[in-house]
Amino acid sequence: AQSVAQPEDQVNVAEGNPLTVKCTYSVSGNPYLFWYVQYPNRGLQFLLKYITGDNLVKGSYGFEAEFNKSQTSFHLKKPSALVSDSALYFCAVSRFSGGYNKLIFGAGTRLAVHP
Amino acid sequence: AAGVIQSPRHLIKEKRETATLKCYPIPRHDTVYWYQQGPGQDPQFLISFYEKMQSDKGSIPDRFSAQQFSDYHSELNMSSLELGDSALYFCASQGPNSDGYTFGSGTRLTVV
Q1: Given A41, A101, A105, which is nearest B43 (Cβ)?
Q2: Which of A105, A115, B56, B111 is the most exposed place for a label (fewest CB within 10 A)?
Q3: Which of A103, A109, A110 to mutate to test the interface with B (most CBs of B within 10 A)?
Q4: CA angle B24, B28, B29 (to 5 degrees)
């Protein structure tokens, strides 16, 4: 079975400061890892994914994430937060098996960036 | 670029009524996933289809059914609606040899 843990319900950051949103996962085999952002009453917007290759993945809007296999983590980072980054962030994992597998989401972390 | 289209965007139904939600995947995408996101919750996997056959099943109530048609669009049928079915329903599509999932904007169902 696959699962995702986002240990923080909310992360508060001052604008201009670096931000980190944490994610750890559990999956048998090789994981596909994703980050999505959701604004109020909106759909899920793709930020970035890790499939294979470099452990540091760069995505949309200046976000990046680092895959750490030994710690089974995939933390989302941004060097300088913007107020407009305030939203709900979901980490998700899928199990690669050569076929099609559902995404399992974490509980979400609400990011609040203060001016 | 074409995206995943869901209809309707909003739906209001009364208890015990029936609702049908539709999902049109990206052209040439053969796999569809359905998710339910309750207020303040993470998206929960309901069911998926690959090449018009059910490929996986999650926490989908027996009152719900779904299918994927020959043109690859999918419909989620919900009967005997309950207040607790009020949620945002997403579908996502995935293409052959694709490692990505593209989500639609969702259908917000409100049961009153």
Answers
A1: A105
A2: A115
A3: A103
A4: 60
